[in-house]
Amino acid sequence: MSGRLTVPCGATVAAFLTVPAVALPGQVQRADPAAEARPWVPLRLPDGQPNMEGIFINVWMPGGAQNSRWENYTPAEPEAFTRRIGQVRGVSIGAYGSEWTEANLRQEAGTGAHAVVDPPDGRIPYQPWALAKRSYIRDNPYERREFLDPRARCLPLATPRGYFSYYNGVQIVQPPGRVVMLYEFNHMHRVIALDGRPHVGPDIQLWMGDSVGRWEGNTLVIDVTNFTDKTWVVGDIGGEGLAAGSFNSRALHVVERLTMMDANTIDYEATFTDPHVFTRPWAVRLPLFTRAPAGYVLFEGSCHEGNRTVELTEVLFKRK
Description:
This protein has 5 helices and 10 strands, in the order ααβαβαββββββββα. It has one domain. Strands 1, 2, 3, 4, 5, 6, 7, 8, 9 and 10 form a 10-stranded antiparallel β-sheet that branches. It is globular. The chain is an alpha+beta fold.
């Protein structure tokens, strides 16, 4: 090569010699405010959906260094619970050291260590009778089988609890007009229709609820109804803890918002309404998913296969 610069006809040398600006010593490189203000734009699938496909894992891990919780409990409450659960079943590790935590959940917009962002006090607004029932179930988990965590009984976990499990991978697939979620835990799955169809009839109750959705920009909005009253709205990793017993009625209505912050990150908000259990709607907000590392696969989390936890627990409790 001669090293000679050849410029096409009609172009200027200046146009071909333009290089990115480099800050000189003593100068500050300033970002482009207009570029920073532009939201991230995901790729689109053939049917127009923003591309959310892939395998994701929770941003928390069980037993992590940061302990946090669904609600804004006072320091005395976990201490009282620890004493009570020790009276019920004796001192043990229990829920693997995280009895009242969903490990590493955090309130994204503040310094609190809880996920409930509305009401402002960070407490789930139970009606008085419902709070008494929830507390009794929580403090007497082995009194009857239905008091045990649905997770410990290998039942489907509904939403949002389906996202939080020891098997914490979720695969998202987007066939035309649908978003499908395949959970690593216990073969759970959801098919979210995007065609504007109504919910199924009011006499039908489903373990994972009936989900219909729509896209608002980068946010997948999911309207969920037709729950059973056999699951818990929230709960703790190991089946015990201050969130245990957080029951709902069949009238529960959940609106979820899964927002793609970038190609690898999904944040989560949900609003819960149940006029039979809560005094008002309430909401949670937390970072939820990060894209799984290369090579991650969903394992078969067949929780119910050969599981005798409930039977053994009943035998041990009756002997006490």
